[in-house]
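Give me structure tokens for this 471-residue protein.
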Amino acid sequence: MSSPAPRASKPRAAAAAAPAADPPVRARLIDLPRLRHADPSQRWQLVTVGVIMVAWFAFTLWASSFWFNALADAVGLAAAIFFIGGLALVPSAMNMFVVVTLMMDRRPPRRALAKYPPLSVLMYVRDHEQSIGETIESIRRQEYPGPFEVILIDDASIDRTAHIVRGMGYRWIKVLRQSKGRGKAAALNRALDAAQHDLIVTLDADAILFGDALWSMVERYVASEPDVRAISGCVLVRNSRENWLTRAQEWDYFHGLASMKRMQSQYQGTVVAEAAFTIYDRAVLKEVGGWRSDVAEDVLLTWDMLQRGWRIGFAEDACCFIIVPADIKSFVQQRLRHARTTLRALRSLPPELLARKSTPFVVWNLLFPWTDLAFTLAFVPGVILAVAYSSNLVMGPMALTLLPAVFLLNIAIFFVMRSMFHAHGLKIRRNVGGLLIYLFGYSVLLQPARAAGYLAGLMRSRSPKKDLKLD
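Here you go.
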């Protein structure tokens, strides 16, 4: 993928100057609770997805049966179900579901608005002197046509972050400094209280907004259904050329995270609006009490919104680029932290949220500890068995069920994202080495780190003092 660069906004500004001739085109997304009142094309789309998934799952069961009995004799029936389900059946079905959904996804083009609403951009900052200047400049280059402000909360930085921001001299930036670190949730809530406008955008302090990202996000928000009260942006990797690890993460964000967000939003089921780049309705944030924890604060906020009947969308063409870990230690620590906080968030999951038909992907997330742990315990032994002893007890089911689904998924998301990139003047660069690492070696590092994070979360949960922030 190409590096972020400014995109001319003058054609968009000219378009916004004239009143829009037609009302915004609303995205025709599948809404499960209202399917009886949907148009026939939506019903047929869901029926098609269901038929293909039943057929694919039947195939995966048949393909796995060649090794199931032998594996059950070797490790026991329960372990055989655990490993074949977690390594082959469940991840294969997940990947194929995403493939079918993406292939059927047809989103209407966005339209310029007659008047763009005011925005308040909230940024939590702690020791970001190396990146904060570029982030602020990327906001300025947006040339957003409506009123906007940036509220930056400096959470007791010990570097020159606040000095750099004040030295830029932009009147639309307000810097609020906290004398001692109070955490991200408290900082964002303070910024929310200080915000003047009804639409709130959260942005990471190392993010670069690409092109007309703010325009795109606002237009997608306006074109969404009335009960969609937050839109998550497309987060990509900014430092992808640094080394082999960042090159692999480029594909993880480009293929894995973007495809999941797009798939979930197609069913009105986005379950996490990352604070890295999301637009919210201020009234809804106030209704749910803002950010209530420094542990998985964006996950808990999203679930608070879903529990009250609000929904989350996804602006696939509102792009921002962030800095990802460039060394193994930082990467593993990040994924450990993500897994640990996700598990602790799942522990606080409201039971009534699981019963909502509009949030099936909350249950989807509950399967990840299973698949990650199965991969961690069985993948390397399976490779050794296949190479040293010519035994495919573990690798056989993966080869016949998971690998075809992964192959089709990568092809589907590549063409979907390439179309969006071309529309924004971006090119998918030749990152073959990163792709090979992502496909064949990335999981060896990623999934054990997540499995360790789940275990750490389980161990920490035994101490009631550790979970006070979730209450």
